[in-house]
Specification:
Number of strands: 14
Strand order of the largest sheet: 1-2-3-4-5-6-7-8-9-10-11-12-13-14
CATH topology: Porin
Radius of gyration: 17 Å
Helix content: under 10%
Distance between the termini: 11 Å
Length: 209
């Protein structure tokens, strides 16, 4: 049974502006909570037309997600790694660095592909003591956006910006937040700007019951 404080569903909406009419991409997620796992059904649509539906499972142990597995083999399975303080330091091929409660960088460094994300911070704590944007920047997982404790990512430090290197990427993200009447974050607007001037916005909507 889903109760207050457990995510029931989430929606990611991306609007792409071009020379023709805007394109609206929507990814929606529905969650079923079990004792040692969380089952997810995800749906992707383009301008209202469903293009893909798939399922996967988060496997938990001692209150932390240990792996993500696709039941039908359609996605990439991977594991989560933690330090002695149960802080997430490895997510798939990403290496994650912390300065106390501040996420300072995310690195992927191999012979084929690499990038480095750097973060700056404000001084105001997020609603209910944690910053969902930190979790989403690390994992890209909609569930962990609102349940950072499941992946060792719970922190009250809110990033003002996220800067991605190398130079050919060289993009910056700025973040805006909205809150519901109980102080839970209900919407996050992410504004991305690239070096050549192209920009777009991504809106994250969170539904609770």
């Amino acid at each position: 049974m889903i109760t207050r404080g457990f995510l029931k569903n989430s929606t990611l909406e991306t609007i792409i502006y071009g020379e023709s009419n805007p394109t609206t991409l929507i990814e929606s997620y529905d969650y079923v909570w079990n004792s040692q796992s969380i089952d997810v059904t995800a749906t992707s649509s383009n301008n209202g037309i469903i293009e893909e539906r798939y399922e996967y499972t988060y496997n938990l142990s001692e209150g932390l997600i240990r792996s993500k597995n696709y039941s039908d083999g359609t996605g990439h399975n991977f594991s989560f790694g933690y330090d002695s303080s149960n802080r997430l330091i490895q997510f798939d091929d990403q290496m994650i660095s912390w300065d106390n409660d501040k996420l300072t960088s995310i690195k992927v460094d191999d012979e084929v592909y690499w990038y480095h994300k750097l973060f700056t911070y404000g001084t105001t704590p997020a609603a209910n003591g944690y910053s969902p944007l930190v979790t989403f920047s690390v994992t890209g997982e909609a569930l962990i956006l609102t349940h950072p404790e499941l992946a060792g990512l719970k922190t009250n430090k809110i990033p003002l910006t996220e800067i991605t290197l190398p130079n050919e990427l060289n993009q910056q993200k700025n973040f805006e937040y909205e809150f519901d009447k109980d102080g839970y974050i209900s919407k996050i607007n992410e504004i991305t700007t690239q070096a050549e001037g192209e920009s777009w916005s991504t809106e994250y909507t969170i539904v609770w019951e």
